[in-house]
């Protein structure tokens, strides 16, 4: 069982705790009551088919029912396509049919897809009701903290959404045991990112504990997710609505998003794409004057947790460049990039030339 | 031309002004610039076909273009059916195609339908961009102030939405000249409501100026909308997210919503339904001990502005009662009602018995 860790996302009256530990789902009823979630109004759990099949849903449902809550569940198809207005509308229908009212709570049990989708339902149902995040992927340590919720539009990802902070995040490490290996590694990509932008010591720790992390060792995972969530929480506390600082969370994402778009969303997982993107950002950093080890350490630690660091040669450089130009960070020949200046420290550079980025993309294809 | 009036909705950092006067659309460019709306990012005007055909759209477009803004327009079908997720999605598509970014502004030019719909697009596009209300109906003095924005779901009105305050409200009285008479009267219903809940003197003024109001006399309208907006703004300032006080704005709406549902949404306009509902609330008040004149004055002033005060006999009482039971204000045999205790003063009564309400519904059919 082991101890659990708690940390708080400081956002004034919207502050909330993140609990991280083994078996926390079994304490969900008690936590809900502690947080003043009323059992007079029905609760709806949203999850996806992969999670539902793993008994995590049954556990959560039964513990909440035992605690006196009226619970219904909605299971959506697994995968990014569920982050659509169509599935959103179905969930609103289910919420209405289950009688959810202004005092009701929506619980997101799943990865980032379920969290973003269910979160947007909670943000807009009756103009906003409460919601709780129960993340079941490693990547969701990122998506469940910070209050960004959204669905996709056929023309653009995450374009329809809100800022809607959860009441709490209940991170039960035992759910991660059923996660496919590739998803484990993809999630570790954002964990390492949080180290790279904020905490050099933690980057070293990730390197040393890479094997334990990939093996889903509970102590290592608990610590890594605690650190990752801490960085995210610290950044979000200082800049809830992404006016400035929050942009640093996009390390590796300018190239990463372009790779996802060009490769097609299923060939390259988000975490894999931004792993390559972070190596690119580190290469760029060195060209702009950062010490060589920014690049070597970045590449080394990402490889250690099993992530790709080389850009697949078959992806066309022109297409990658075009995809970046559609990104709003691009303006008249120069782009905005999050650039590491040292391990654990980044800056926002608004004047990176497109031709330099092209050079980097080419080099990333040669990465050893 | 005449002077214009200004009032401020006090909401801390979300405070904003309401400008009311003749010809304000002609000053839109200058106002936008004053309010820091950037001409670097494209603006999108949302309106409906009835408004578009009246030249109000052409005026607004051209004045904004003259002021240096990049402007596109989206025209939706007139009527409540446009407040749907489908039309919402189309507007997001148009916003993407027009290149709207995080610094862009959406302008709602129209009645409550356009305001609610465009407002929800603004609330959720890229997790929230700025928006400006340019109301063109009398009813919209109500809907454009307070930040409630929403679309409908086939099973429930206004169920998908947000609180999203505009940057400003620009109320150009000249647009009201093209409004059909029936819409004029329906809008006056909410004007009178604002007097009934808050300001006895203003109720007397409405009585004295009823003819000028129906004739769309600009001075009378300007004053009435200023007073109506002032009451709405005062209530909203004290309770932005409808925790308690804001409920008083629902005077007449418990019965009114039921009548709309039973009559079908096109037979009885919202303002007409709540006129009858307010007479019902006044009848109820007298039964609960308020002075007789609460009823006589309410009924008199509503008749004076040309509104129905009698419930159409063909509407079935059982169906009306059922519709109220689906309303969330109903709990185990007793209902929540906004009850006038005097002209200009209401209270929230949570224990009105359903049988008393049924009595009132029957009596409303006999109203002289
Ligand atoms: N809101 C934010 O701030 C934010 C930040 C980062 C990413 N995101 C979003 O997060 C999404 C990606 O999140 P994700 O990687 O968690 O994707 P995901 O939710 O699709 O989960 C990945 C896969 O793992 C499966 N799965 C989840 N938990 C499982 C478990 N315990 N056992 C077995 N299988 C399980 C899912 O069904 C899915 O097939 C993207 O839509 C992205 O836009 C949001
Ligand atoms: N958000 C809120 O707080 C709030 C409050 C009250 C009502 N509402 C909403 O407002 C809506 C009703 O508003 P409404 O009564 O303004 O309806 P509306 O927007 O449908 O306008 C009524 C009719 O008048 C037409 N019209 C509008 N301006 C015109 C003009 N200047 N000249 C000619 N025709 C014109 C419209 O095309 C429409 O046919 C409802 O959807 C209701 O839910 C919202
Ligand atoms: Zn990411
Ligand atoms: Zn109303």
Sum up the structure in keywords.
homodimer; 368 residues; alpha/beta; Rossmann fold; Dehydroquinate synthase-like, alpha domain; 2 domains; seven-stranded mixed sheet; three-stranded antiparallel sheet; 15 helices; 12 strands; 46% helix; binds nicotinamide-adenine-dinucleotide; binds zinc ion; nucleotide-binding (chains A, B); 3-dehydroquinate synthase (chains A, B); DHQ_synth_AroB (chains A, B)
Description of the structure:
- The structure is a homodimer of 368-residue chains.
- Chain A is α/β, with parallel strands linked by helices.
- Chain A has two domains: 5-178, Rossmann fold; 181-364, Dehydroquinate synthase-like, alpha domain.
- Helices cover 46% and strands 20% of the residues of chain A.
- Chain A contains 15 helices and twelve strands.
- Chain A has helices at residues 28-34, 49-52, 56-66, 85-97, 112-124, 140-143, 181-198, 200-208, 210-214, 218-238, 253-263, 270-287, 292-304, 317-326, 354-364; strands at residues 5-9, 16-21, 43-48, 71-76, 105-110, 130-135, 148-153, 156-163, 168-172, 330-331, 334-342, 345-353.
- Chain A has a seven-stranded mixed beta sheet with strand order 1-2-9-6-5-3-4, with helices on both faces.
- In chain A, helix 7 packs across helix 10, helix 12 (270-287) packs antiparallel against helix 13 (292-304) and helix 14 (317-326) crosses helix 15.
- The first copy, chain A, is globular, with a radius of gyration of 20 Å.
- The structure holds nicotinamide-adenine-dinucleotide (2 copies) and zinc ion (2 copies).
- One zinc ion (ZN) binds next to helix 12 of chain B.
